[in-house]
Every structure is written in structure tokens, then in C-alpha cells.
Write a structure and sequence with these properties.
The complex is a heterodimer of chains A (428) and B (338).
Chain A: H1 3-26, H2 44-47, H3 51-54, E1 78-79, E2 92-93, E3 127-131, E4 137-139, H4 141-144, E5 150-157, H5 174-178, E6 181-190, H6 191-198, E7 206-211, E8 218-222, H7 223-226, E9 231-236, E10 239-240, E11 250-252, E12 265-271, E13 286-287, E14 293-295, E15 303-308, E16 320-329, E17 335-341, E18 349-350, E19 352-353, E20 363-371, E21 376-384, H8 393-400, E22 413-416, E23 422-427
Chain B: H1 2-22, E1 30-31, H2 34-40, E2 55-57, H3 58-68, H4 70-73, H5 109-119, H6 130-143, E3 152-154, E4 169-171, H7 174-179, E5 196-199, H8 200-203, H9 230-239, H10 280-287, H11 294-302, H12 304-307, H13 321-334
Antiparallel strand pairs in B: 2-3
Helix pairs in contact in B: 3-6, 5-6, 9-13, 11-13
The chains are: A alpha+beta (428), B mainly alpha (338).
Chain lengths: 428, 338
């Protein structure tokens, strides 16, 4: 039996009992426009004094660097231990079902390391550019701070996000199926400004970005992308990069797979050919069922997921006014529309987009409706400004087979039962 | 006179603004020395660019591989636990269970040399010299039946080796093959009916969410370090990085490639029941009374293969006695879990 499902059921039963009591007392509270009074039942949260109503709280410096309410301790990144051999070369997942808006808080941005988190002394940080440039050059952090800088909001999605779902519904929670993504406001220097500073030779066609961590992560990137929108970033959401996100400096490669956003970046080499290193040959290549593989699949396709309700976030309020929300993004531009289906994709309705969002960033959508308490098959479908419409998983599989691992952007379905419990399923 | 001077300096001021905003570079950074570039520029390309002078044979590679690689990748490159397989897997890429190894999948040998050199052994990266990397690369070729046992790989013959799967990669073709077909935004009656075909609950592989657990608990809280030399413990923690790839310590430490080290002091050698990968000899020594303490740990860690013949711990040992002392202090301080 599904264990935390059980726990959810228990919780739901309690809250549903409350709901039944409430609605009996209130009459048909759902439809009537004036609120009824739950007579004889006074809410003790109001009638009784709470400790915080009279006692003094902490002074200003109790937490010089603040953290969330103690009632939010369950809002954390989680991993799936059986996925990888060791936590130093592994991944954890952003709790999308606990978040709203479009910005991912720094402490909840998912982590993917190939040799653990490098702890770099900023005084010893150096950034080298060499190869097909006029001058092999070294910058330290104070040099980088003197370049003109920009602020840009971008999503980072791991190419393997939803990769466990190629053969069918597997993990029960959008944190696990879709949590290898975050959306962050970066402060940094356009890479093209730094490349112009060192002077590109006319033969420059590719760059190699290299990390300072113990995996010395490397990826080849075509010069057109490097000169387009890549950023050498040192701040995320206003503060210094977190160690696990590449402190003190990382590469930002908007719209392209997360593995290319080299963390702890220490060097860029400019060359005339790609390097075909480990992360662009043995990994991050998409194997088809005929045994051949696609390489250099950099762009992240348009994708969306409903974050609430979802298996970790069931509907606990019963029938009536219900908010469906989720996120959508595209590596090719802006999200133009998100549609929601409550019947497994037979009929669709346009959702409402809200919040700051830009090209290659996460967008937030809402769909409000009056739930009649009948089971739902919830889906969302994104369309970006190139006209690309997020495909179904079957559409993807018909072209790519089931061994691709990477770039699974198929439409996700949550089955919600009459009690509001949601489950990861696939539909015909 | 004064006025005209003012005017001239104003013009000079304007010119300087002009030259700042239109100068070609910002004058930031400094030139790199040749030694600095060669210290970091270690990348290798398929056409051999970057490959250093050197050589190594399959025979030497076998020994190096056993010492440095086999504890994770297995004696035959078969991969232990979830660590990557390096050999075999031929004719599986179009099957339901593709096995992607150097022999079956990787397109270029340069990638092996580059990766072993830059990132391996795991937890002790860039510790192998060029000849050793040639030898290990040669041995990985041998494990894949791509060369004979008397083969020697060098910068001279490197480019003659082609991996069998090189031709089976092609460039991203989503734009033509997929993007043009995924453009139908159907809104009404898009299909007749939607029925559930697959369910996650059937598999039951989702990690459990413990709602009651205090998740922000500092995992080091229960680790006692009171009676130990804190500086030595700190030094030992650094030395322990050499062990981390295989061994875990701490509240939720589990067995990995090697056994967990909680309560290692006073533990009978080879006695952890839930650890299945002990060598025969370590179990035998345990039955004969080998107990881990300061003395036995230092002797073992100084030269594991000498102290316990046939140990599966593929680790050269720690030669510096101050590092050994620090490590054992750290183990003693950190592994007492109540």
C-alpha cells in the first residue's frame, strides 16, 4: 500500500469531517452569496487568547540571517535515494507544490552536483579566458565587479527533469516528477562583453566552459549562444550565489539544459570545434529506440505542470471554489498561453497568467473553478510564442521511444479522486 | 583669459568622456602567464588537440585500475551498485535495457582520457599523471575487447583508435521533426474519452515524506566531540575527504561502497551484518579477535592491502603520520552515534 497516501487519507478524513460539520451548520454555504453564521460554535482561535497576543517575541537580531517560519519545516528539497550511487554525485528536487509566484527561493533551488559542493575562497577565485582570443586573460572578483552588469530572470531546468517518467507514471509528486527546475533573478555580466574585452579571433566558433569543482565540469557551447544571452552571474535573487549554486560565479545559459550552466566556473576556452566531453557524449545525449542518439539537444522544450493540487498537495477543502495553479516555461521564448483540462485532455480552458515573467523564465498560471466533488483528470498544456504546443507523452514516445532519459516535456496528468487525493497517472 | 581656460578644460573634459565611453576595451583583468594557462588548460579534443606526450600499457593499466577504479566500477568495468558501467553492453542500445559503456556508447576515446584525467578517481581528482591516464585508458579499451592485452596506448597511436559507436550520433533535429508537428492547440472534444492507463501508486517508489520529523535538525548535533582535540578533529575531517567516496559517517549514514563508520571504535572487523561486501579475510580476522581501535586503525589505514591481505578496500593508504593521527581522531570523535 502506498504509505504517505495513507497518511494523507488520515489527514483528509479529519479535515473532511470538519468540513461536513461546518457545512451542516452553515447550510448550503457553497452557493449562497451571504455568509451564514456557524451559531453555537465559536472559534477558539478567536475567543481564546493566543500566546503571541500578549507575550514578547524575539528581538531584532535573534536571526541575523532569517529563515522560514518553524511551521514551514516540511518545505524542503528532497532527493530520491535509489536514483544515484552517492549523494556527492546526485540530485535533489525543488518543492514546487509548496511554492507560488514565479521566483524560486534560493534555499529551495534544486541541487545537482557531480563531485559535491565546491567551497571556494573568494580571495582565491580566478576566472581565466584562453584559446582563440587576442590575449589570454585572468579576472578576479574585483575585476568582474567593474564590468557593466544586468539583471535577468531565467529558469534553469535539468535535461533529466521528468526523466524517470519515460516509461510511465513512476514518482508520486510534482516535486519528484518536475522539481529539477528553478527560476531565479540573476545579476551578472553579459558574456559577450567579457569576450569582447579579451578580443575574439575570427576563427572562434565554440567555447568550453569549465568548473572549479572536483568534477571539473565541462560543456561546449557554440559562439553564437555565448555572444547572444549568456551571463557570467554572481548574484541570485539579490544575494551572492549559494555554494550549491556555484558560489562565487556561475554561467547562465538561458533556455538551455541546466548541465551547461557550469557552476563554480573558473575558465572559458575559445576554440574552433566542440570538445565532445563526457557530459555531451556519454550523458545528455538522447538515445532513440533504434539505438542511435541525438546530441547537442540544448534547448528546453515548452513545458508546464500543475503544482496544486498534486500528489503531495491534495485538495483538503472538499467541493466548491477551487484554485488550480502551476508553472510553465519554454527555452525558446515566452509562454503565450497555458490551458487546463479537468477531464484528461478531452476539453481545455485557457488559464490565467500572473506575475513577473519574461522570455525563458518560469510563468505562473491559475485556473479557478467550482469543483463538484467528482474525480478529476488534471492536465496543463503550455504554448510558447513560437507556436509550439506542449505534446502528450505518447506523442513524444512515438518519435523518441522510451530510452531517451532527457527532454521529457510531455503533458502531466494528476488523477484527483472524490476525497481530493491526487495521484500521478497516464491517460489514453 | 580665465574664461578661455575654462572653456579649454571643458573641451578636454568632454573629450575624455568621449574616449571612455567609446574606448574598445575596459582595461579590466590581466594577461595570463603561460604556466597559468597550462596549469588549467587540460582539455582534450577528439582530434587529439591537448593530448600530452606519454604512454601506458594494458598491463600497467590493470594494476592502476584495480587500485583506483574497481571499487566503484567493478573488476571488469561492470559497475557496482549504481556506479557507471565502463565495459560491455554491445548490441543493447536498441533494446529495452540499453547499457551505455565506453565500448557500446561513447563516440570518442579522447573523452575517456579527458574525463579520467580531470575528474577521476572520484574524490581524488587530478591525482593521476599522464602516463597513468594512458594506461588506465588502455585498460578500459581492453575491458571492452577493443585491444589486446599487450597493447600500449600513447599520444602517437591515440588517433588510430576509433570507438565503435561514433557514427550513431546525429545533431538535434527537433526543429524539423517535432516542433512543426506540435502546434495543434485543440480546445474542445480533442479525443473521445480519457482513461487511466498507468499509475504511479502501483510502483510505490516515491520516497516517504515524514511529516513529524524535525527536518532542520542539525545532523551533527548528536555527534560527540567533547573530549577530543578540536583542531585535530578539524584536520582529520579534511583527510576524511579521501574516504568519502565510499564511507559515510553521521546520524543517517548508511553503507555505501564501503561500510558506514558509525561506532567504528570498538567494532569487530567485518561484523556489520547488513554490509555484504566484506572480503573473506577481514571477516576471518574479526572472528580471530581483530577490533578497531587507535592502533589497529592506524596500521590498517597506513597500508590497507598489507595489513589485511585481500581487502576489498581499494585505497593506497595514508603515508603522513600527522594525517593518520588526525583522521583517527576525527573517526573517534565523529563516529560515536547514540
Amino acid at each position: 500500500m502506498f504509505k504517505y497516501g495513507n497518511e494523507m487519507v488520515k489527514k483528509l478524513k479529519t479535515s473532511r469531517r470538519k468540513f461536513v460539520v461546518g457545512s451542516l451548520a452553515a447550510g448550503s454555504a457553497l452557493i449562497s452569496s451571504t455568509k451564514s453564521i456557524a451559531s453555537n460554535i465559536d472559534d477558539k482561535a478567536i475567543t481564546e487568547m493566543q500566546p503571541w497576543n500578549s507575550e514578547l517575541g524575539d528581538g531584532v537580531d535573534a536571526n541575523p540571517y532569517g529563515f522560514p517560519s518553524e511551521y514551514e519545516k516540511h518545505v524542503i528539497r528532497r532527493n530520491v535515494p535509489w536514483l544515484t550511487a552517492d549523494p556527492t554525485s546526485s540530485v535533489n528536487f525543488t518543492p514546487l507544490h509548496e511554492l507560488d509566484g514565479t521566483i524560486t527561493p534560493n534555499g529551495l533551488c534544486f541541487e545537482r552536483h557531480h563531485g559535491g559542493v565546491a567551497i571556494i575562497d573568494p580571495k582565491k577565485y580566478r576566472f581565466m579566458i584562453n584559446g582563440l582570443v587576442d590575449q589570454n586573460t585572468i579576472f578576479d572578483l574585483s575585476d568582474l565587479a567593474r564590468f557593466p552588469r544586468v539583471n535577468k530572470l531565467y529558469f534553469l531546468e535539468c535535461a533529466a527533469n521528468s526523466g524517470m517518467e519515460w516509461r510511465g507514471a513512476q514518482l508520486n509528486g510534482c516535486q519528484f516528477t518536475h522539481g529539477m527546475i528553478h527560476n531565479v533573478l540573476y545579476t551578472g555580466i553579459p558574456l559577450k562583453d567579457i569576450l569582447k574585452e579579451v578580443g575574439l579571433k575570427s576563427s572562434a566558433k565554440w567555447i568550453l566552459a569549465e568548473g572549479a569543482d572536483s568534477s571539473a565540469m565541462t560543456r561546449s557551447i557554440p559562439i553564437e549562444k555565448a555572444m547572444d544571452d549568456c551571463i557570467i552571474a554572481f548574484k541570485m535573487n539579490g544575494e551572492s550565489l549559494r555554494p550549491e549554486q556555484g558560489y562565487p560565479v556561475r554561467l547562465v545559459v538561458p533556455g538551455w539544459e541546466g548541465n551547461m550552466w557550469v557552476k563554480w566556473i573558473r575558465r572559458i576556452e575559445v576554440g574552433d570545434k566542440p570538445w565532445h566531453h563526457r557530459e555531451e557524449t556519454s550523458k545528455y545525449t538522447d538515445l532513440f529506440s533504434n539505438g542511435k542518439a541525438r546530441r547537442f539537444t540544448w534547448e528546453m522544450d515548452a513545458k508546464s505542470v500543475i503544482t496544486n493540487p498534486s500528489p503531495q498537495a491534495p485538495i483538503t477543502h472538499g467541493r466548491g471554489q477551487t484554485v488550480i495553479t502551476g508553472v510553465a516555461w519554454s527555452g525558446r521564448g515566452k509562454i503565450q498561453k497555458v490551458d487546463v483540462s479537468i477531464d484528461g485532455g478531452v476539453n481545455w480552458a485557457e488559464a490565467r497568467l500572473s506575475g513577473p515573467a519574461d522570455t525563458k523564465s518560469m510563468h505562473r498560471f491559475y485556473f479557478e473553478f467550482n469543483w463538484d466533488g467528482k474525480p478529476l483528470l488534471l492536465q496543463s498544456r503550455a504554448m510558447d510564442d513560437t507556436g509550439y504546443v506542449q505534446p502528450t507523452k505518447d506523442q513524444l514516445r512515438s518519435i523518441r521511444g522510451e530510452n531517451s532519459i532527457y527532454h521529457n516535456n510531455g503533458i502531466q496528468t494528476w488523477a484527483v479522486d472524490k476525497d481530493g487525493i491526487a495521484e500521478n497517472v497516464e491517460v489514453s | 583669459m580665465l574664461k578661455s581656460l575654462k572653456f579649454v578644460s571643458y573641451i578636454i573634459f568632454l573629450c575624455s568622456i568621449y574616449s571612455i565611453s567609446y574606448s574598445q576595451t575596459l582595461g579590466l583583468g590581466r594577461a595570463a602567464t603561460n604556466n597559468e594557462v597550462s596549469a588549467w588548460d587540460i582539455d582534450i579534443r577528439p582530434d587529439g588537440k591537448g593530448l600530452p606526450v606519454g604512454s601506458g600499457s594494458v598491463i600497467i593499466g590493470e594494476e592502476l585500475y584495480t587500485d583506483n577504479c574497481s571499487s566503484c566500477h567493478g573488476d571488469f568495468g561492470e559497475g557496482i551498485d549504481r556506479w557507471p558501467e565502463l565495459a560491455g553492453g554491445f548490441d543493447t542500445l536498441d533494446s529495452e535495457d540499453p547499457v551505455k559503456t565506453v565500448g557500446s556508447y561513447w563516440p570518442y576515446l579522447s573523452t575517456v582520457w579527458d574525463y579520467v584525467h580531470r575528474a577521476m578517481p572520484f574524490g581524488n581528482a587530478q591525482s593521476l599523471n599522464n602516463d597513468e591516464v594512458y594506461a588506465i585508458t588502455a585498460y578500459i579499451l581492453y575491458l571492452n575487447d577493443l585491444v589486446d592485452e599487450d597493447f600500449e596506448l600513447s599520444h602517437v597511436n591515440f588517433e588510430e583508435i576509433n570507438l565503435p559507436n561514433e557514427e550513431n550520433f546525429y545533431l538535434d533535429n527537433r526543429e524539423n521533426l517535432e516542433n512543426t508537428t506540435y502546434n495543434n492547440r485543440c480546445m474542445q472534444n480533442c479525443k473521445k474519452v480519457a482513461m487511466i492507463t498507468k499509475r504511479a501508486v502501483v510502483l510505490d517508489v516515491t520516497p516517504e515524506e515524514d511529516m513529524t520529523e524535525n527536518n532542520n535538525l542539525d545532523k551533527n548535533d548528536n555527534i560527540q566531540i567533547a573530549s577530543f582535540d578540536p583542531n585535530l578533529v578539524k584536520e582529520g575531517e579534511k583527510v576524511f575527504k579521501k574516504c568519502k567516496a565510499c564511507h559515510r559517517i553521521g546520524l543517517d549514514a548508511k553503507n555505501g561502497t564501503g561500510p558506514h563508520l558509525n561506532n567504528i571504535f570498538g567494532r569487530v572487523a567485518g561484523e556489520l551484518r547488513d554490509y555484504k561486501k566484506y572480503s573473506k579475510n577481514i571477516k576471518k580476522l574479526g572472528q580471530e579477535g581483530l577490533i578497531w581501535n587507535n592502533e589497529t586503525l592506524i596500521s590498517f589505514l597506513a597500508n590497507p592491502k598489507k595489513y589485511i591481505k585481500g581487502t576489498k578496500m581499494n585505497f593506497k593508504g595514508i603515508k603522513k603520520s600527522d594525517e593518520l593521527d588526525a583522521l583517527v581522531e576525527y573517526l573517534a570523535a565523529s563516529t560515536k552515534i547514540n
